[in-house]
Design a protein that fits this description.
Elements (H helix, E strand, L loop, with lengths): L5 H8 L3 E5 L4 H10 L8 H5 L13 H6 L8 E5 L21 H11 L3 E7 L6 H17 L13 H8 L3 E5 L10 E8 L1 H7 L6 E4 L6 H14 L18 H17 L23 H9 L16 H4 L10 H8 L11 H9 L4 H15 L4 H4 L3 E3 L33 E4 L3
Parallel strand pairs: 1-8, 2-3, 2-8
Antiparallel strand pairs: 3-5, 4-5, 6-7
């Protein structure tokens, strides 16, 4: 359940030390191998030993046995369960979908009893609340039985009231509030053991946004877009000296820049949600029709994904009427991955890893809020870059979680280099 490492990267930056990484997709496993050897406690040999694994097999695996963990030892069990059972775009079968891995995740929680649990999914599990409210209550009831602090929910309450009560542990966060220039709402469940909260004396508090100025597609992609166009700065789409009327690489860049600047001025400088798609459905593009129109407004052709700069086909990748297509690396920037994260596989496989990932800055924000409970003496330092939810803040109307912002994205800040705690990551 690690995917290409979006959640794992964020929790790494929040200070957690990974004890294990569990992922079933071979391409994503290769991506993890190519990157995590730099992390504390990992080496090239250990990274190379990663193998695709179904999370249902984790407890029986040598990987789990070799950790030598006793129940209660682990600081954090973190992962993302498959989205299709709960996606607004799917059949929404929930627990009746064979791809639902909440039961497998809860089985691991029961066996390891980590101090904290963090599970990420699509917002469809929250919205509208009446669709999956009973299943969510069932999950919380099970966590309560395992000793975790979760709200008591009365079955006779209306779904909207149940949903509001659940928000103390299960709520929607939008990537656009955490320095990611993308509208990407995610549902995040955080549960902490009651005894841990009692010893800590610090309650878990949700981060609401990253302090600072807005992050936009213009700001995040300007440098890479100019570098891509520079190779053809004085050339046409064939890579030849331009004939009268031909556009040059300079023209392509300036047209993109004009559109991106106009989008920012219009309050539309944040990208729509990237969609990774599935192996069953053709090649990669940036999303459905509405998303494609939003990208075109920002000067980007969203009908596909561009080749890497060293393999650039200028006519296909850059000189399109609607604007250049994004490369995989540029999509990763929009998703909040750090520079230099190396995705493995062919282009479509790489893009799907990016498009299906949990944005690292959001995972980092939630990870720091969890770490503030586990390490209360470091709370101020951990949370200094964030605005936090408080009881005095209004929870809004019952439909609050249905609303999507159109902009308002804070800027990211340099990642901290401290590393504290341990966790098993099971997906992102």
């Amino acid at each position: 359940m690690c995917g290409a490492g979006g959640q794992a990267v964020g929790l790494h930056e929040a200070g957690f030390k990974h004890l294990a990484l569990v992922e079933w997709d071979p391409h994503a496993v290769e991506t993890l191998k190519a990157n995590v050897s730099r992390w504390p406690g990992w080496s090239k040999k250990r990274a190379d030993s990663l193998k695709p694994m179904d999370v249902k097999d984790f407890l029986k695996s040598d990987v789990c046995a070799n950790l030598g963990l006793q129940p209660g030892d682990l600081d954090l069990l973190a992962g993302g369960v498959p989205c299709p059972p709960f996606s607004l775009a799917g059949k929404r079968l929930g627990k009746d979908d064979e791809r639902d891995l909440f039961p497998a995740a809860l089985e691991i929680v029961d066996a390891l009893r980590p101090k904290a649990v963090m599970i990420e999914n699509v917002r469809g599990i929250l919205e509208p609340p009446e669709v999956f409210i009973d299943y969510r209550k069932q999950i919380l009831d099970e966590l309560r039985d395992y000793g975790y602090a979760v709200p008591e929910i009365e079955e006779h309450w209306l779904p909207e009231k149940q949903d509001i009560e659940m928000r103390s542990v299960w709520r929607r966060l939008d990537a656009s509030d955490f320095g990611v220039p993308q509208l990407r709402p995610r549902a995040i469940l955080v549960a902490i053991r009651k005894d841990v909260l009692e010893r800590s004396g610090v309650e878990f508090v949700w981060p609401t946004r990253l302090k600072g100025k807005e992050a936009t597609v213009l700001e995040k992609l300007d440098e890479s877009m100019k570098l891509r166009c520079l190779k053809f700065w004085n050339m046409n789409f064939k890579g030849q000296p331009p004939m009268p009327g031909d556009r040059t690489g300079e023209d392509v860049y300036n047209a993109w820049l004009d559109n991106a600047e106009k989008a920012v001025k219009a309050g539309k400088g944040v990208a729509p949600t990237l969609v990774g798609g599935s192996k069953k459905h053709g090649g990669a593009d940036l999303g459905p029709t509405r998303a494609k129109r939003a990208w075109e407004y920002m000067g980007v052709n969203a009908m596909g994904v561009a080749n890497a700069p060293e393999k650039c086909d200028p006519e296909r990748d850059l000189f399109r009427p609607a604007g250049p297509m994004l490369t995989v690396d540029q999509a990763a920037i929009i998703q909040g991955f750090p520079e230099g994260w190396k995705f493995q596989g062919q282009k479509t496989a790489q893009y799907r890893q990016v498009g299906n990932a949990f944005p690292p800055p959001v995972a980092e924000a939630v990870g720091r809020a969890i770490a503030a409970v586990l390490r209360p003496e470091q709370k101020v330092k951990l949370l200094e870059y964030y605005e936090m939810y408080s009881d005095s803040d209004s929870e809004g109307t019952p439909s609050e979680q249905m609303a999507l912002p159109v902009s308002g994205v804070p800027q990211t800040r340099p990642a901290r280099k401290d590393r504290r705690g341990d966790f098993v990551s099971a997906s992102a």
